[in-house]
Amino acid sequence: MRSLPLPLALIARLTPVAVLACAGWALTSGPGATPSAAQDAPGRDTAARSSSAPSSTAVPKTYAAAPAPCTSLAKKTITSLVPGAKTGGKEIPSSDSDARRTCSWNALEGYDYRWLDVSFEVMDSEEQAGRSYQGRVEERKGGGAVPGLGDAAYSVVNLTTEDGQKTREGVVLARADNALVVVTYNGSDFESKDAPGTDEINKGAIKAAKEAVAALEDGGA
User: pLDDT tens, 186-201?
Assistant: First the structure.
């Protein structure tokens, strides 16, 4: 096996405001006034006060912390997707390990290079996670939905070329309640200067994402 320098592109990777409305009404004492209007008023006033009262019950988060990312995938999955990689992976330092954790695997076997990242991001609410998920999907055009993965999932594959070397990268975004799972999987062939096929990269990224989402759900139970 020849030792080859990696391309620079591969090395460098790494309230709503609540508005309170008060409704008022006037009760007349003239001949047109009816007993029912006067009787309805107290009940309506009570309902208004009740609806304006702040709720003291906080909605619990389904996932309170990100699971350990380096044990989220089966060892056989890692050796299959990243031949030659150490199955233990390498966790990327995070400023808030409860909110975000990422594990990375990469290896050069012969002339074939593969890189796999799995990230977990836990947010304060399902709504916040949904907004983040939608924004990221909109930034990555050309992909498609992945049925049966979390509450929503999206997959996209892109091909890039730098200094004549092609690299194909697949990204899978998945949302499960208040958490996001992000999988990035790419590869290059340094002998042919080509890249793995779209189907290989896409299926590999989806396989890793399914296992990662399952690990999240098991850890959050």
Answer: 999 999 999 999 999 9
pLDDT exceeds 50 at position 15: no
Q: Is the dihedral of CA 182, 184, 153, 210 positive or negative?
A: negative
> Percent of the chain beyond pLDDT 70?
72
Which CATH number do you get for residue 177? Answer: 3.40.1000
Pairing of strands 112-122, 152-162: unpaired
User: Looking at the domain assignment, is residue 132 inside a domain?
Assistant: yes
Which amino acid is it at 24? G
Question: How many structural domains is the chain composed of?
Answer: 1
Q: Is residue 18 situated within a structural domain?
A: no
Residues 184 and 210: beta-carbon distance below 8 Å: no
**Do the domain assignments include residue 85?**
yes
Measured distance CA(166)–CA(190) in Å, rounded: 9
Q: Is 32 exposed, middle or buried (0-12, 13-18, 19+ CB in 10 A)?
A: exposed
Domain that holds residue 168: 61-220
